[in-house]
Amino acid sequence: MGKALADRFSRIGMIAGITLTGAVRQRMVLLVGILGAGLIGGAHYLWEFDFGSAEQKFLMDLGFGTVGMFGTLLAIVATAQSWWDELDGKTAQITLARPVTRVEFVLGKLVGLAGLLGFFAAVMTTILMLVLWWRAGPRDAMETLILGWTSVPYGAISVCGFLQWVRLCVVAAMTLFIASYAGSALFTIVLGVMFAVIGHLQFLLHEPGDGGDGGIGQAAAILIGLVFPNFRLFDLGGIIAGDGQLTPELTMGVAGYGGLYVAVYAALAACSFSRRDL
Amino acid sequence: MSVEDEPPAVLLRGLGKDHASGWRGGVVRALDRLDMRIDRGQVYGLLGANGSGKSTTLKLIMGLQSPTRGTCEVLGGTPACPAIRRRMGFLPESPGFYRHLTGSEMVTICGRLSGLQGVELRGRVAAVLELVGLAEAGKLRIGTYSRGMVQRIGLAQALVHDPELLVCDEPTAGIDPVGVVQMMEVIARLKASGKTVLLTSHLLTEVVEVCDRVAILQQGRLIAEGELAGLMADRQPEVIVRGLGEKDEQDLREWLLPRGGIVEPAGMTGRQLQHLFRSKTGEH
Q1: If exposure means fewest CB atoms within 10 Å of the residue's CB, which of A138, A229, A238, B182 is most exposed?
Q2: What is the pLDDT of residues B119-131, one digit of tens each?
Q3: What is the ipTM of this complex?
Q4: Residues 6 or more apart from B232 whose CB is under 8 A from it?
């Protein structure tokens, strides 16, 4: 039993490794990485569009916004491209003609993509912290008051970066589920973007007066609330920028919420792909 | 268990496959009630035009598709079972590989996915790369390979775990004549070592050369099956006579005419063309 499990993990690891090494070679990944790094690295020079925010808050909002937006794009396109490269290139047939189950294949793809997104989130968060460290350099009291600087909460920023990664993993798992039954890469990307947009707007269902007036509207709101994750929950950068505290309970709760959706969408993808003819 | 007691390599009973077509629930019948048996150690050729159901049959045998009807038994089990697939090798039609890997890395990964490890894996990778003539080129990235080299790496990955049953979909597609001969030699060697090979091909000359039995599919139906000699038995013999002078040919024509025979130019056969190519290029 132990060896069978070890073999299973070994196969998942191999598929993940191939997926990761293939994904980092995608031109789009490089493009998104450079654009994201450029935007965060040059965030200070965009402060004139701050609409009155303090510099620190502006930098954090822009930084995490960039990780979220570019990361979402990366999660959708890299997942779709990696998946369809396997199916169109028949490498999926070669892999699945071996003692590899469809579940292992899907999990391997997901782990490989999670690695890519983790690398992306880590690099972007590091660049953000470097920019904050640079801007938080020695100042006098008046300058600090005017620019709205407090000490940089590096630990909390790392946690926010981690939660952004969890969110991107949810997007990748959703896209993988779509790809498992889709007929083309384009369909996968379009539907993946739609799912992501619904997830980003899902919080509107929880606002007072929304979600229908009972009956069908209420049922639809509950259904959408269950099917699509509320991506707003992962945006905790605003809390730390506003001098709030990230409690371990809140962090674990959001990470668990994301992990649950990753597990559900991965299971759906594996189930759907198991019935697919190659 | 003796060889006689062993289950056949492939046993298909009433196998059928429908593909959904369009939004209105339309169905395209890709394969219709196929019965087929391939015994161990045979080289079996599956022939047919494009769309006749050859590739579908192979994918059903490899467990890459699920049958709509009937049963598919491979090496005594179902191809859905990973333990059965461990004993099979598959070369898809026009395979694509990870272009950033070298040929050797690709075959190594395939070997590891099939459960090989350590010294055994390294030995098998070296052996199959040698077998397909890519011992040196195995160090190059697949992105730099020609179509024929990709096809050979495809054969290497299919053989790396020393499968009992090798399934090849158009193994000679895209390969030059010399490569075709080498591919057929590899298959002949597998046959000599007791392996079972199932292949599809458009090159009938090659099929004749290596196959023990053939099946002919048309629009998803089996229209002929058996040993080549048996299938050809009901055809009137055709004889090629070389080196006749004009007078002798005229005499032969006059002799054959009242007996119902005819004389017509044979033209150049595929085999003659192949010999010509090999003699001109100096390849053997």
Answers
A1: A138
A2: 999 999 999 999 9
A3: 0.83
A4: none
